[in-house]
Specification:
GO terms for molecular function: nucleic acid binding. By secondary structure, the chain is an alpha+beta fold. It is built from three helices and five strands. It has a five-stranded mixed β-sheet.
């Protein structure tokens, strides 16, 4: 009997590629606003940051979430994730010329089922 791929494996691959597509949509939205993408999926000791951008002198760390609606995507951002993003960002900032004095912002970027993007500047500061 031939082996078939498990639905869970297929779902995992689909989610992975949907996540990459969402990150690309968000990166383009930031670029349209004048930001420059510094890194995608940057990994540090504290964890992974979906997007690191530069807006002038400010570093912008972005957590991207995709779901059917913006509200559902926003609910998927946990306090534990935010703590990991802050820890990873601290490692990234340490490599900057101004170090911990570098101006930073932590955004959430939500992508709905249609591919529409909602950028929430500073959202992770207030979470």
């Amino acid at each position: 009997m031939p082996q078939t791929k498990s639905p869970a494996g297929d779902t995992g691959r689909l989610n992975y590629h949907a996540g990459l597509a969402a990150e690309d949509c968000v990166a383009r939205a930031y670029e349209a606003r004048g930001a420059a993408v510094a890194h995608k999926r940057w990994r540090g000791a504290g964890g992974e940051i979906d997007l690191v951008l530069r807006e002038g002198e400010t570093l912008v760390f972005v957590e991207v979430k995709k779901s059917r609606t913006f509200e559902a995507a926003a609910r998927r951002i946990s306090a534990t994730q935010i703590a990991r993003i802050f820890a990873a960002a601290s490692g990234f900032i340490a490599g900057e010329p101004a170090g911990q004095l570098t101006p930073v912002r932590f955004d959430a970027a939500l992508v709905d089922a249609t591919g529409a993007v909602s950028i929430l500047p500073g959202a992770l500061h207030n979470a």
